[in-house]
Amino acid sequence: DQQVKQNSPSLSVQEGRISILNCDYTNSMFDYFLWYKKYPAEGPTFLISISSIKDKNEDGRFTVFLNKSAKHLSLHIVPSQPGDSAVYFCAASARYSGAGSYQLTFGKGTKLSVIP
Amino acid sequence: DVKVTQSSRYLVKRTGEKVFLECVQDMDHENMFWYRQDPGLGLRLIYFSYDVKMKEKGDIPEGYSVSREKKERFSLILESASTNQTSMYLCASSTQTSGRDWQFFGPGTRLTVL
Hints:
The complex is a heterodimer.
Chain A: E1 4-5, E2 10-14, E3 19-25, E4 32-38, E5 45-51, E6 56-59, E7 62-67, E8 72-77, E9 86-93, E10 105-106, E11 110-115
Parallel strand pairs in A: 2-11
Antiparallel strand pairs in A: 1-3, 3-8, 4-5, 4-9, 6-7, 7-8, 9-10, 9-11
Chain B: E1 4-6, E2 10-13, E3 19-25, E4 31-38, E5 42-49, E6 56-57, E7 64-70, E8 73-78, E9 87-94, E10 104-105, E11 109-113
Parallel strand pairs in B: 2-11
Antiparallel strand pairs in B: 1-3, 3-8, 4-5, 4-9, 5-6, 7-8, 9-10, 9-11
């Protein structure tokens, strides 16, 4: 059973426009969420995270929004650039829930293509 | 700057061979992880370790084993490689220090089993 779902396998956006990547989760114990970016033939790199005590976290062109009641988070990239073309993975952990494991559960990823 | 290195970028092995994938991190991280990435399936956790000589099964441990004899090194072992183990293998590490505990990934090893 998938606990972290990224329902869009791919997304195409024009350069300069906003990219919105979505992620849903089912496990109520998740309290920390991360986005990773992955280029082909490279390992994923950490992009941005958000704790469940917040509903928004911003870092430059990247903003993550968390809606706990809907168990939904989204990553906004504004403005989108061709170099943002990559696979984006959503991940979640039960960091503050006493599990103590720091284990991450990943979604299947969304491939973003930013068209010049 | 955290560095996670993996012994090979590309590896080709034959069915039935014993395969060792090595991972080394240089930031004194307590936690280390092995994942495999397959198209349409995302990243799936194979094994992880919170301490030297300690290991825990992830979601798909069948056909794999691990070894952590030193804190900086975490090895993934395929006892008898099979074609369905052809995949991209990713190693990651993280610290238990609060606020800096996201996982850092190595570059990956693309393993092909013929």
